[in-house]
Write a structure and sequence with these properties.
There is one protein chain. The chain is of the alpha/beta class. The protein has one domain: 3-Layer(aba) Sandwich (Rossmann fold), CATH 3.40.50.300. Helices cover 43% and strands 12% of the residues. It is built from 12 helices and 5 strands. It has a 5-stranded parallel beta sheet with strand order 2-3-1-4-5, sandwiched between helices. Helix 7 runs parallel beside helix 12. It is globular.
Length: 241
């Protein structure tokens, strides 16, 4: 039976780059946000997410069915890697997480929020996943798991070290192929790639970390203050470069 790795990310992080990295492995199949349509169908987000109609047309809306048939289904390679947004767990039973290898991916909201607001104006805490990350972390700890936490900045500072430690913690060998890929999209990309994946499609590997060069928008400062305490809890336990 395949080992199922679930990456639980917030938006505008390096989750797609990590999906591309795992796609380079000889033993792994990757899946791009299979619970996105479930989330859109259950929340007001479908009214303001770019391309939401396309997403809803392209995917199964029933999240429980996605879990049973795709995430927990049979796969042709030993590892199945699922890129998820943490808030896509909305209104889903979580008992399946006891049977998956779970990894949390976060990013400093000071860097993430301005990027996200380009596509989703006036985002709220429910859109960006920080509170959901802590809730998920506590749930996983309550069922006896100690999920690795990744911080996007730390991955970019030293991809080989951080991914090597991640692979060790989740019980798979690190492969050097994970550090580079061909420019352009992948067949696994969701239909939303048009709106979100421009940078990763231009990349051939993990882009070296660059601090933000623009001033932080004043309109996002209340949300930043709301997100920061959650992020700080995750940053403390993230794998370091």
């Amino acid at each position: 039976m395949a080992s199922r790795i679930c990456l639980w990310s917030g938006p505008r992080n390096i989750s797609t780059a990590l999906m591309y990295a795992f796609a380079q492995r000889s033993d792994t199949l990757v899946f791009d946000e299979p619970l996105y349509a479930h989330y859109l169908s259950k929340t007001p987000a479908q009214s303001y997410h770019p391309g939401s109609a396309q997403v809803l047309t392209s995917q199964e809306h029933d999240g429980e069915r996605v879990v049973a048939e795709l995430i927990m289904g049979k796969h042709a390679k030993p590892i199945a890697f699922f890129k998820h947004m943490t808030h896509h767990l909305f209104a889903l039973r979580r008992d399946f997480l006891a049977q998956t290898v779970n990894v949390l991916l976060t990013r400093d909201p000071y860097e993430m929020l301005p990027s996200y607001a380009v596509q989703v104006r006036e985002p709220t805490i429910n859109d960006v996943g920080y509170a959901a990350h802590i809730e998920l972390l506590h749930y996983l700890q309550s069922i006896g798991q100690n999920p690795p936490v990744l911080d996007g900045k730390q991955v970019l500072l030293n991809p080989r070290k951080v991914l090597g430690e991640l692979c060790e913690r989740i019980g798979i060998p690190f492969e050097e192929a994970m550090l580079s890929w061909r420019a352009g999209g992948r067949p696994e990309d969701g239909v939303w790639a048009t709106y979100w994946y421009h940078a990763v499609h231009q990349s051939t590997g993990f882009t070296p970390y660059q601090p933000p060069s623009r001033d932080f928008p004043a309109s996002l400062r209340p949300l930043l203050a709301e997100c920061q305490p959650y992020y700080e809890q995750l940053e403390k336990i993230a794998i370091k470069a």
